[in-house]
Specification:
Blueprint lengths: L13 E5 H4 L11 H5 L1 H6 L4 E5 L2 E3 L6 E7 L6 H13 L3 E6 L3 E3 L3 H9 L28 E2 L2 E6 L5 H18 L3 E4 L7 H14 L4 E4 L17 E2 L2 H12 L3 H12 L11 E2 L9 H4 L6 H10 L3 E5 L24 H7 L4 H15 L2 H4 L1 E7 L3 E7 L3 E8 L5 E6 L3 E5 L4 E5 L3 E6 L3 E8 L1
Parallel strand pairs: 1-2, 1-13, 2-5, 5-9, 9-10, 10-11, 12-13
Antiparallel strand pairs: 3-4, 6-8, 7-8, 14-15, 15-16, 16-21, 17-20, 18-19, 18-21
């Protein structure tokens, strides 16, 4: 299946927001979601045309313990506030994608409360996976149940149950009708019943044809979930690790292997666009992962230029730090404070780079849809080609402290360096690409 170049999600650069942190309070008393609405101009001026935000619906703690799929978390405001956010975002040309937490619910979810009260007489006892009324748990409920990764606060839903599937799809229909959202990111998608994902895709395809489904997948062959019957895209965790560790270890062979495996000739995902990121609400900020902070610049350049749909996690455009601990993710999910981010930033030029990368990504179709071919590789340099029927892109990344002039085989013509505003002429089947320290070059040829 060829990538549909007309779909909005294949022409998107995402800004990722963890709402309960962004709005201020870390589960305590955040500002309302109106704070995001007030910052939409900043997001748009930064060059992003899509927002992935979540979790948003009623919960007791971190948002992934849903208690009501039909009500915005009261800590973030009202359904009217969410409706206004999406309406204003659309007016500014920004698409909105919400979290869909469909693998599990919180213990205060109405159906589970009914089971707690009535036990085996509850009409909802089959809504949950692994219910065992001969067992018990740490809450002394008098029964046990399946959870997400052993967390008893996250009760696994039985997605083989028609009523459960109906409840969730009704929620999605409500989100589309009430808020006019453009897509859903499926939390813990690797834990979901595959038939449920197919049913969800079938429903959304018929109900809103350009609705985007993206899944949180970490391991495995992503084609199991990312295909024409299920998800349009998945989180590219394979590339995530290779991206930063290739810089830290001075070993571009690692990321080159992943890129070729995924997108090279015969690549697994050559006709797909996975969701690409350097950090998110579950992993350390990329600034805290890198040994040499100067690598932020060529690293973001690489992320934007490789195949995929790029995403930046709020605050990371200013290079903020944050590491998770064994007991808490709160340092990854701070209050959005633009003045504080600007003042404390040690890499203020990063924001301007991301603005420029968003612009270049949108302006040149070859950077979104071009195929991938490795051209040159060493421990601290990589050059690859992206090509469509109308353009060729040659992208070079240099992680070293040395300026290098590298000879590259190429089609004859005038190549514009859109990153550095230079012109290189390819003749006799080659050109010289100059790569400055901790930087790169993006050469475009219009055929």
């Amino acid at each position: 299946m060829m990538i549909n170049r007309e779909k909005w999600y294949h022409n998107a650069a995402f800004y990722h927001i963890y709402a309960l942190g962004y709005c201020g309070g870390n589960f305590e008393r955040p500002d309302s979601i109106n704070k995001v609405t007030e910052n939409l101009d900043y997001i748009r001026e930064s060059g992003f045309n899509a927002i992935y935000i979540g979790p948003l619906f009623e919960s007791a703690t971190h948002g992934y313990d849903t208690t009501d799929y039909f009500k915005l978390d009261r800590r973030l405001g009202t359904n009217e506030d969410l409706k206004r956010l999406v309406t204003v975002a659309h007016e500014k040309g920004i698409r909105m994608v919400l979290d869909g937490v469909f693998n599990h619910v919180g213990r205060d979810f109405f159906a589970f409360r009914d089971v707690l009260e009535k036990k085996w007489e509850s009409r909802y006892k089959d809504w949950f996976a692994g219910i065992n009324f001969e067992g018990n748990n740490h809450h002394n409920d008098g029964f046990s149940y399946d959870t997400w990764e052993g967390h008893e606060a996250l009760v696994k839903l039985n997605l083989y149950n028609a009523d459960v599937k109906g409840h969730l799809i009704d929620a999605v229909k409500f989100w589309i009708d009430e808020f006019d959202i453009d897509g859903i990111r499926l939390d813990a998608a690797d834990c979901l019943n595959l038939d449920f994902i197919r049913e969800l895709r079938c429903f959304t395809e018929a109900y809103k044809s350009d609705f985007w489904l993206m899944g949180e997948i970490i391991h495995g062959d992503y084609r199991r979930w990312m295909n024409d019957d299920m998800l349009h895209s998945v989180t590219n965790y394979e590339a995530y690790k290779g991206l930063y560790s290739s810089f830290n270890d001075k070993n571009f062979y690692e990321i080159a292997y992943s890129l070729d495996r995924e997108f090279g000739a015969g690549g697994l995902y050559r006709e797909r666009m996975p969701y690409t990121f350097l950090d998110n609400h579950d992993v350390d900020r990329i600034e805290s992962r890198l040994i040499d902070k100067r690598d932020l610049y060529p690293l973001y350049l690489l992320m934007y230029m490789m195949p995929g749909i790029p995403s930046v996690y709020y605050g990371s455009e200013w290079g903020i730090s944050g590491k998770r601990t064994s007991t808490s993710d709160l340092m990854l999910r701070p209050v959005f404070n633009l003045e504080k981010f600007k003042t404390e930033s040690t890499c203020r030029n990063l924001y301007k780079l991301l603005q420029k990368l968003n612009y270049l990504y949108m302006a040149h179709p070859v950077l979104r849809f071009g195929n991938y071919e490795q051209v040159y590789l060493s421990h601290e340099q990589i050059i690859f080609k992206r090509e469509t029927e109308t353009q060729i892109g040659l992208i070079g990344i240099n992680a070293s402290d040395q300026t290098l002039d590298l000879s590259v085989n190429c089609q004859r013509g005038e190549y514009r360096d859109i990153l550095n505003d230079n012109v290189s002429v390819g003749s006799n089947g080659s050109l010289t690409m100059r790569l400055h320290p901790k930087w790169g070059s993006v050469l475009i040829l219009d055929k």
